[in-house]
Every structure is written in structure tokens, then in C-alpha cells.
Amino acid sequence: MRIIRSRSELATQRAQWRTEGQRIGVVPTMGSLHSGHLALVDALDGKATRRIVSVFVNPIQFNNLADFEHYPRGLEADAAVLEGTGKVDVLYAPDETEMYPPGFATRITVAGPDAMLCGAERPGHFDGVATVVSKLLLQTGADVAAFGEKDYQQLCLIRRLVCDLDLPVSIVPVPTVREADGLALSSRNRRLNAAQRQQATHLPAALRACIADIKAGRPVADSLQTCRDRLTGSGFNVHYLELRTGDTLEQTATPQPDARLFVAASLGDIRLIDNMPLHQA
């Protein structure tokens, strides 16, 4: 596995692969890798002959400087994890100047998905996501890219972006990977202390209970309020808890077949997000 830090070196590697007829698969990440990221790498099996994993903590998607500064980092450890898979050809790890050279002045906005859920609370966040993902897809020349359903709103936004800009890349959605106790894997989980980590298990448990209530015929509004109360009683500050369609992300008060339950809630200053489909396949 090669570690590449510059756009020019990446372009050379990409051109070589193109002359060889290789198919390039990409997994964009912000590092602090875990099993959820490795599931994205595995999702490219049979879909790509060369794989690139990018590691870049993107400053323009953070609207909280402290959150950016505290985001876990560890490139050496990430490289070891990727090397251990035996599947990754390139770890692309540009620095901020490489990604956003002096004079950089462009932002990409995907209207709709950017203004709800996490977007409503974090102005500019999804502009930053759309911009960096566009750059990474173009820099790598990706034929296929894998994104997790854990960040389902982001997945929907990227699908819209790729469609609207006619980017020649297929987006592969990958189901959320969870710990044995149900907590969705996230790099932010590493910031939880022991007590908070125990509290965090109430998040997926409350979502499962809410879904069971809705499927049993209880009104959606009542089920959501009970879920919110459970989370608040477990020590969470609930930012949002909503039932939305799985395609357009429109709010719904009825248990439609593709509906998903979305939540963002904090323990202290650590913000956790999760989502679950109302009807499992």
C-alpha cells in the first residue's frame, strides 16, 4: 500500500491505472478508522480492481472550531489498519493546503438535503461535505465510491450531487455497522468516557423501541415523544428525533415502507447521530 499526499502524485498513479484498464474504487474518510470504515472497503469487492482510501479531516465542514480541533486523528494507526486488510492500494492523505490552496473560493451547495436534520443545526456543514467529496471524486477518478448509511443524510446528499453534476461514479450504500450492544460505530465514540459510553447504549435501544411502537400501530407523534422522553431521561440532549422518508427525506407522520427514524443527541459536548429503517429487509 502506498501513502500519497499530493494531488500530482495521485494524478500520476490514476493515469497509470487508467492505461492498465483498472477500475478505481474510493472510500472517503476523516480517519480514526474502525470496522465501519473497513466495511466500506469490503463493499468494493467485485466492483473495483484498485482501491483508494482517503483520510482528510475537512475543516470547511465544521462550524465549531473546538469540534474540529478535538476530532480524533492518527494517520500512522490508520495506515496500519488499512495495510492489514490487504485490499487497499493507496492511502491518500493530503494536508489542508493541498486540498484548499491559497485563493480557493468555491463551495458546492446541494439544496434540500442541506437544510434539514443535521443541516438545520450546522449551517454550512453540508456545503463543506459536498465540496470535499466532489474534489475527492475528481482527484481520484473514482468509478465507484462507498458511503455508509450511518450518515444517511450525507449519503442522500452525495447521491443528489453525483446525479446533478453528471459525475461518472457509482455510489454504493453500506449498512450501518454496530457494536455488540447496538451503538453505531463512529470515530466520535472514542471521545466518550466510560460512563458516557454506557449511557450511549440507550440511543439505539430507544430507537428500536420507538420503531416497535410505530409498527404496533401507535401514532407516530406519540411514539416519537416517548422516545424523546426516554433519551432525555437517559441523560441525552436531543437535537432532533424525526421520522422521514428514506428517499427524499421528507417528514412523514405515517409509517411508509421506506421511512427511517433519524436522531441526533449529545452527551456533554459529544454529538451522536443514528438512524434506523422502519421496516428491515
Automatic annotation (TrEMBL):
Enzyme Commission number: 6.3.2.1
Domain of life: Bacteria
Main location per the UniProt record: cytoplasm
UniProt: beta-alanine binding residues: 61
GO cellular component: cytosol
Sequence positions that bind ATP: 30-37, 148-151, 177, 185-188
One biological process term in Gene Ontology: pantothenate biosynthetic process
Binding residues annotated for (R)-pantoate, in chain numbering: 61, 154
CDD domains: PanC (cd00560)
HAMAP family membership: PanC
Family: Belongs to the pantothenate synthetase family.
Subunit structure and binding partners: Homodimer.
Entry protein name: Pantothenate synthetase
Gene this chain is encoded by: panC
